[in-house]
């Protein structure tokens, strides 16, 4: 018997307790993967959406938390275009809507003739023409979910619109969106002449110094607006920052609970085996060997929990994105790095959770351990 086979035998002798402990650790790991993966997915979806549109700088109302609210004067866009270094600029409006089919969709309003419309990857049909107020374009993923094709109609705010085109975009948000001419969406939300933000293209987007210079010029000319580079947009959003903080806070609580579960299990195991440990000490086991056996037991429990947790976390994310009300805007970002980071934290819990029980086992004299019942 050695420091590995001894704790392994203990786990086999208490299968139910070991299983419940591993399940608790697995649940903590699964919740961490799911929550952090979702929060990172929101960041990724935002960045992909802006990349699809070819936007370099986004302008929103300074201090605004709800960036979808249409409160800015659309007329400011002409002054933005006049700033040196600005190649193109446009106002935009976005609105989340619930469709009759139970799907959630993002409705984006952009001025016809601007760069966003020309950059859309049309896979079927065409874009709306000037003067067509009853035509919309739909993302391919949303069209498939709704069973729609070009020529079909869809109802928005009580009005029927004809789907004149289908587009394929990288971002899950854009691929499940409905695109309409800006004046049409402004009328639908009763905010004529108002936009929620401005999207800006720089004349030399591959030059970081040029982008910074243009952003500084814009910030000086429009003190009421916040100008954010597209790459920093997700990290600058108060909403996504809140989601990220909530994800890590919930994960920390879950990991703390897992540590307590492991600690309690190992304390019980040490208490039940006090006579065995006394015998082992009496026949020559060193304190370091006893400590190693307890810590190995904790690590084995957390390894089993990690395997279950990774599987449960990935499965849970797949179930979430299949939900028609949630999956529309969820693009989980679970990388190998995140999995390894999470598993590393769980294994650390196995080691730390075993330190006190191991210390307790080695600080009782062998004669007292042998007398213990």
Structural account:
There is one protein chain. With 373 residues, this protein is an alpha+beta fold. It folds into 2 domains: 5-45 and 240-371, no CATH class; 63-223, no CATH class. It has helices spanning 5-13, 15-53, 76-81, 115-119, 140-146, 172-175, 182-188, 208-221, 233-236, 238-272, 274-282, 287-321, 336-362, 366-371; strands at residues 57-61, 72-73, 86-98, 104-110, 122-125, 135-139, 153-156, 159-167, 177-181, 194-195, 197-202, 225-229. Strands 1, 3, 4, 5, 6, 7, 8, 9, 11 and 12 form a 10-stranded mixed beta sheet that branches. It has a two-stranded antiparallel ribbon with strand order 2-10. Strand 7 (153-156) and strand 8 form a beta hairpin. Helix 1 (5-13) crosses helix 12 (287-321), helix 10 (238-272) packs antiparallel against helix 12 (287-321) and helix 10 runs parallel beside helix 13.
């Amino acid at each position: 018997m050695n420091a590995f086979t001894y704790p392994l035998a203990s786990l086999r002798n208490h299968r139910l307790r070991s299983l419940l402990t591993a399940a608790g650790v697995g649940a903590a790991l699964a919740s961490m993967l799911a929550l952090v993966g979702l929060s990172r997915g929101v960041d990724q979806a935002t960045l992909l959406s802006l990349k699809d549109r070819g936007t370099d700088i986004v302008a929103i109302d300074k201090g605004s938390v709800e960036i979808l609210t249409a409160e800015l004067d659309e007329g400011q866009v002409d002054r933005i275009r006049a700033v040196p270094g600005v190649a193109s600029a446009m106002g935009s409006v976005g609105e989340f809507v619930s469709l009759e089919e139970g799907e959630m969709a993002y409705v984006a309003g952009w001025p016809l003739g601007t760069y966003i419309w020309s950059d859309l990857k049309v896979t079927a049909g065409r874009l709306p023409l000037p003067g067509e107020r009853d035509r919309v374009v739909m993302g391919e993923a949303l069209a498939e979910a709704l069973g729609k094709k070009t020529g079909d109609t869809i109802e928005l705010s009580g009005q029927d619109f004809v789907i004149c085109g289908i587009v394929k975009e990288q971002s899950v948000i854009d691929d499940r969106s409905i695109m309409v001419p800006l004046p049409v969406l402004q009328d639908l939300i009763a905010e004529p002449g108002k936009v929620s933000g401005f999207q800006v293209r720089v004349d030399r987007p591959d030059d970081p110094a040029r982008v910074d210079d243009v952003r500084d010029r814009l910030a000086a000319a429009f003190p009421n607006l916040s100008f954010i580079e597209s790459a920093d947009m997700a990290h600058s959003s108060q909403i996504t920052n809140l989601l990220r903080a909530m994800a890590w806070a919930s994960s920390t609580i879950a990991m703390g609970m897992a540590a307590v579960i492991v600690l309690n299990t190992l304390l019980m195991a040490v208490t039940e085996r006090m006579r065995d440990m006394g015998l082992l000490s009496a026949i020559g086991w060193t304190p370091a060997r006893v400590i190693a056996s307890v810590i190995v037991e904790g690590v084995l429990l957390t390894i089993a929990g990690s395997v279950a947790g990774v599987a449960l976390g990935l499965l849970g994310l797949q179930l979430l994105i299949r939900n028609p009300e949630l999956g529309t805007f969820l693009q989980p970002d679970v990388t190998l790095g995140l999995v390894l980071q999470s598993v590393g934290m769980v294994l650390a819990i196995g080691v730390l959770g075993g330190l006190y029980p191991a210390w307790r086992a080695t600080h009782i004299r062998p004669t007292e351990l042998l007398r213990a019942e």
